[in-house]
Amino acid sequence: MNTWPDTRLLDLLGIEVPIIQAPMAASTTTAMVIAANKAGALGSLPAAALSIEQLREALSEIRQASSGPVNVNFFCHQPPAPDAARDQQWKALLEPYYRELGADFDAPTPVSNRAPFNDAACQVVEAFRPEVVSFHFGLPEQSLLDRVKATGAKVLSSATTVEEALWLEQHGCDAIIAMGIEAGGHRGLFLSDDLNTQIGLFALVPQIVDAVSVPVIAAGGIGDARGIVAAFALGASAVQIGTAYLFTPEANVTASHHYALRHAQASETALTNCSPGARHAASSTG
Ligand SMILES: Cc1cc2nc3c(=O)[nH]c(=O)nc-3n(C[C@H](O)[C@H](O)[C@H](O)COP(=O)(O)O)c2cc1C
After folding, report:
1. What's the pTM value of the predicted model, to 2 decimals?
2. Ligand 1: which atom is nearest the Cα of residue 23?
3. Which end of the chain is more exposed for a tag (fewer CB within 10 A), N or C?
4. 66 — phi, psi (to 5°)?
5. Cα(185) to centroid of ligand 1, in Å?
6. Closest Cα to residue 195, out of 90, 86, 276, 82?
7. How far is the CA of 186 from the centre of ligand 1 (A)?
8. Angle at Cα 153 formed by Cα 147 and Cα 154, nearest 5°?
9. 138 & 24 share domain
């Protein structure tokens, strides 16, 4: 048991306040990362939706504007194999919505641009040497992970179960993001795709804290000081906050997304498996 409050993450990452501005692909801007850094938190740049050139530009901008540590976040999922027949089935199912909204049913279906971590992205990490690299959906293959660690970056990844937390610790994570079922965006689950394994943050954090020896970061449904205090009481060393940052002026959210965030009832958020375990409606378009 660590002493309370657990300040290990502040020391590990060199930040002043135990808050990680969550990486949110397509919603987090460089301005958000810079503002979070300037406030003493850890700003996180999501790379999944950026080209390599965009990633370089974003990191240059952040490095010029802020001297604080920065986190760069990558997906390391297995991209699904193209399947025209399956896509056609989906489209047929969605046809009434195309008609209702006047969308072009015959236009090609956009494909996901969420690219997994690879050699080119690793070269950017080696060139810019961010202080922290976080991953979603487990960890990349060992040779890439070794290269990231050789830059001196601290490595984080999200666990949605105790089993995933233990796996991440055994594979070299310096700290673990405990991702409760409340968390917005894609769930980072990677050892199982059984949604019955997913539990709430209050149950998950103390179990992971007891199971691993590295610091634990609580993520999911934390929107104000009460949530932060509760996470600390459960043994977390920091919190990672996402959806609440979508209300900041630096967030890249459409007017309709913003409206939905402000007006949705708690019961309107749903967990789907349409993209890997994503929480949709009120909390996310991730
Ligand atoms: C719109 C959106 C996009 C997200 N994109 C990412 C991402 O690119 N990488 C990642 O590791 N987590 C992503 N997440 C998850 C967040 O990093 C974080 O764990 C989560 O938002 C915490 O829960 P909260 O939204 O209830 O605060 C996303 C979350 C949201 C809401």
Report:
1. 0.91
2. 17
3. N
4. -145, 145
5. 5
6. 276
7. 7
8. 120
9. yes
